[in-house]
Amino acid sequence: MPDTTSTSALHTVPPIALRRRVTDHVMTGAAVLTVILVLAPLFAIFAYLVYRGIGSINWAFLTQTPKPVGEAGGGMANAIVGSAFILALASLLGVPLGVGAGIYLAEYGRNRFGDVIRFTADVLNGVPSIVIGIVAFSIVVLYQGHFSALAGGVALAIMMIPTITRTTEEMLLLVPQALREAAYGLGIPRWRTTLSITLRTATSGVITGIMLAFARVAGETAPLLFTTLGNQFWNLRVDQPTAALPLQIYTYANSPYDDWHRQAWAGAFVLIVLIVTAVAAVRFAVRRGTFGAT
Amino acid sequence: MLLCGLAVLATLGLIIYELMLRSGPSWHAFGFKFFGGHDWDPVNEQFGALPFVYGTLVSSLLALFIAVPLSIGVAVFTTEMCPAALRGPLSFFVELLAAIPSVVYGLWAIFVLIPILTSYVGPFLARTLGWTGLFEGPFYGVSMLAAGIILAIMIIPIISSITREVLMVVPQHQREAALALGATRWEMIRVGVLRNARAGIMGAIILGLGRALGETMAVTMVIGNRPEIARSLFAPGYTMASVLANEFSEATGNIHRASLIEIGLALFLVTIVVNALARLLVWTVTRGQPSRANA
Questions:
Q1: ipTM, two decimals
Q2: Domain membership flag for residue B13
Q3: Residues in chain A where the model's pLDDT stays below 50
Q4: CA–CA distance from A62 to each of A219, A259, A271, B83, B234 (Å)?
Q5: Three-state DSSP state, B294
Q6: Which residue, among B135, B151, B143, B142, has the nearest Cα to B60 in the 3D structure?
């Protein structure tokens, strides 16, 4: 649009002063420069991660547990499974609550009280993850007397809830009012309409929100530091300390051993592949699905 | 459903309650002096949080200083200048930056960023800006400067995506009016777009600040973790979030743990205020539509 205006204006009004034209070009150049400066670290991170990650990953890494300190070899199999376990716990706790709160906001929360909850969810979204870790520590670890997978699950669940709540609400609001009215017209009670008509129609959008929340907490390390603690061995018990991929990356990155650095990169690569797949799948689903408008 | 809604409120309430309850011993022992004291000595049970507060503030402000111009530039470029075909991929890439976990940023910073800083950026800054006193002394890489840069990279996606959102709700006729008066494109952006979006952009910046204040892992990995207040950005520092990450699971003394939780409480209160302020600012511009960018 700007191009047409400047060329056609040239015939009727005097040309734009040199200083203004130069400023225009300089600012355009500056904006392009910022884009390059922002994208450069992104590419640097991805390129280096893929380069180190692919070079470091091997069968042992994916199937073995860590070797004792200083000994080369071993892997993060227990951490990968541990992460999946903790994330499953978190989803089990966080998804029903988040979706429920989202339904409340969309279907019953068009009032002042709804606004309070909406605002609380947004504020909760900004609470530092390490603070959430402290809270999970005080309500689960202190109560149980030791570190556990459950505590980590609780921490991550608290972090998932606000994202799920807000996207669920947003997606339900996109469902046409006429659909609800049609259901009421058939004599279906409100709760039934919400569950079988509204939520059903918005399923793909709600799943998008869940995946976004999942991707957001999958790489979280800070809330796990003093909740699941980490573990050198296999564990699938809810009440025991458990290894997690981000924790293992953190420990290995800070260690003085080259082989552990290699494994940290391999772990980071596995983690990123997981998260980027989730984000890309969500983007693809959103574009293809019924909710292309968002 | 109402129960689930209440659970969201209850979660926030629980966070406040637990933090206040568990930080009690430290509050009783030190009072307000806690945030003015320099000494952090778990062995003698002397706790003062000033170095951590200082580290958190300086690293976050440094990050804002770097990130704000870059983020606004990217947002302006994607909404006002860039060809339509580039718009989607560009915002996708910037969002990808947000999807990278903090610990991976830290890993990259240790093995890539810090070597670059020590061999090129550090000597250059010392030579050109050494006279300010901000870039003095020996530079080993792990430093306030490294923390500020990695934080900047991490908050750029947040600031730029929310700024983009805010710029997109500026009415089209504002742009058309500016152009009709003979403005160049940059003048149109300055007068018609940026001026209208001021409050929202401010909100985006504050939201970025909130994220930077609470960021833990990447900062812990590069800041050096030394509780000292130094003027030079080359010196190592310590932040409130990092001291929690490093000491919390090993804090055995009751008062040590309470002190750490009090730091957590302070961090929580600051981020709550910062976020609430930012939300209000963004809401006044986007009229209460849920913010998608922060997901």
A1: 0.86
A2: no
A3: 1-2, 4, 9, 290-294
A4: 18, 15, 12, 43, 39
A5: coil
A6: B151
In three state form, how does the secondary structure of A254-280 look? CCCCHHHHHHHHHHHHHHHHHHHHHHH
Q: Say if B39 falls within a structural domain.
A: no
- How many domains in chain B? 1
Rounded to 5 degrees, what are φ and ψ at B227? -75, 70
In chain A, beta strands by DSSP E? none
Residues pairing with A56 in the sheet: none
User: What amino acid is encoded at B233 in this protein?
Assistant: L
Interface test with B, best of A16, A21, A35 (most B CBs within 10 A): A35
Residue B154 amino acid letter? M
Per-residue pLDDT tens digits for A126-140 = 889 999 999 999 888
Tokens 């109402």 belong to: B2
Q: Is residue B41 part of a domain?
A: no
Report domain A60-288's class: mainly alpha
Report chain B residues whose CB lies below 8 A from the CB of A268.
Answer: 103-104, 107
For B84, the domain range is 49-286
* CATH number assigned to the domain comprising residue B123: 1.10.3720.10
Within 10 A of A276 (CB to CB), how many other CB atoms are there? 15
Residue to test with chain A: of B72, B77, B94, B104, most A Cβ within 10 A: B104
Question: Which residue in B77, B104, B290 is closest to A166 by CB distance?
Answer: B290
In a domain, residue B43? The reply is no
